[in-house]
């Protein structure tokens, strides 16, 4: 769809296409040509491209585009649980449900206006969902592509239940990298983390920036709101800004685990790094009628913008 006249009309900036299973997928473009795709299956972000049309998120060549699993790649919305617990499937279940387009969402905070290229999605629990997670909620997701190409995700969870409930949440984000051994994360140094590879034992990060030479699956706790993922080979840096999401999960399955995953190529761990803004250690509790908001903004900047300058670029989270 094109747009008519001088005014950028967000309806014209969105296009509905069918995804791999005939499920609707919304493509949102900004006037500069950056785009994001979101599937109504899981509210999963399946693509984020810059003005040059370059894909910025990783998707496995072996991804299985079929419910009931989430597609291996992009960004999946993990709610009401990020991680494992006995009653629910790992990282489930919002990412395995069909969402709807929210034509008339309650207004967002005025600071949450990111131009006019956006779409709003909504998930409510089915009767079946309520049997194993008996808490009525509304989960809203705003997906926006800002004028500068930033990808903005705003999730809102509202308790429409008679009783309080608690949940964890995560944006399970697969970044596309040139070579994992050339990548480092800045912003997590000296933090405490739970090591999922060692029964969630708590450790303190020692070194400088985080680099990769083996499998990693950690929940960094109470992290700063801005984190940088530097890709030396591509000379570009992902800047992750978050709000309401104190924790960061860092995951790479490395060689051995990759080989055991049916929906992931044996060598693909080299081109992927998951850096997930999340709320895990302290679950969010909502009383009846209360609402929680979790915001994530992803930007890509040339690596020549060194990390100390991130806060000087005039980019705030909102
Ligand atoms: O296979 P998935 O359910 O998408 O999970 C993939 C990974 O997600 C998170 O990063 C968890 O910390 C990992 O333990 C998990 O293996």
TrEMBL record:
Keywords: Isomerase
Gene Ontology molecular function: carbohydrate binding; glucose-6-phosphate 1-epimerase activity
Entry annotated with the keyword Isomerase: yes
Keyword Oxidoreductase: no
Annotated residues for binding of substrate: 72, 90, 95
EC number: 5.1.3.15
PANTHER family to which the protein is assigned, alphabetical: APOSPORY-ASSOCIATED PROTEIN C-RELATED, GLUCOSE-6-PHOSPHATE 1-EPIMERASE
Entry's family note: Belongs to the glucose-6-phosphate 1-epimerase family.
The protein's name in its UniProt record: glucose-6-phosphate 1-epimerase
């Amino acid at each position: 769809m094109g747009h008519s006249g001088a005014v950028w009309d967000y309806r014209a900036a969105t296009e509905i296409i069918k995804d791999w299973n005939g499920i609707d997928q919304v493509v949102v473009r900004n006037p500069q040509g950056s785009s994001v795709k979101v599937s109504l299956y899981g509210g999963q972000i399946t693509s984020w491209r810059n003005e040059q049309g370059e894909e910025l998120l990783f998707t496995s060549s072996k991804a299985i585009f079929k419910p009931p699993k989430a597609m291996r790649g992009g960004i999946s919305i993990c709610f009401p649980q990020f991680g494992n617990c006995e009653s629910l499937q790992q990282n489930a279940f919002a990412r395995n449900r069909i969402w709807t387009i929210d034509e008339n969402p309650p207004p967002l905070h005025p600071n949450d206006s990111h131009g006019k290229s956006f779409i709003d999605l909504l998930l409510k629990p089915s009767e079946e969902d309520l049997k194993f997670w008996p808490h009525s909620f509304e989960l809203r997701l705003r997906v926006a592509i800002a004028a500068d190409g930033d990808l903005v995700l705003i999730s809102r969870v509202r308790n429409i239940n008679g009783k309080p409930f608690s949940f964890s949440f995560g944006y399970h984000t697969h970044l596309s990298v040139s070579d994992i051994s050339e990548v480092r994360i800045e912003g997590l140094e000296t933090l405490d983390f739970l090591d999922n590879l060692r029964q969630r034992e708590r450790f303190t990060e020692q070194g400088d920036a985080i680099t990769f030479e083996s499998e990693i699956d950690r929940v960094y706790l109470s992290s700063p709101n801005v984190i940088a993922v530097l890709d030396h080979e591509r000379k570009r840096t992902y800047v992750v800004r978050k709000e309401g999401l104190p924790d960061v999960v860092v995951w790479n399955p490395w060689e051995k685990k990759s080989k055991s995953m049916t929906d992931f190529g044996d060598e693909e761990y080299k081109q992927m790094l998951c850096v997930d803004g999340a709320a895990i250690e302290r679950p969010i509790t909502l009383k009846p009628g209360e609402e929680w908001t979790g915001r994530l903004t992803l930007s890509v900047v040339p690596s020549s913008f060194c990390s100390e300058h991130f806060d000087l670029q005039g980019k705030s989270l909102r």
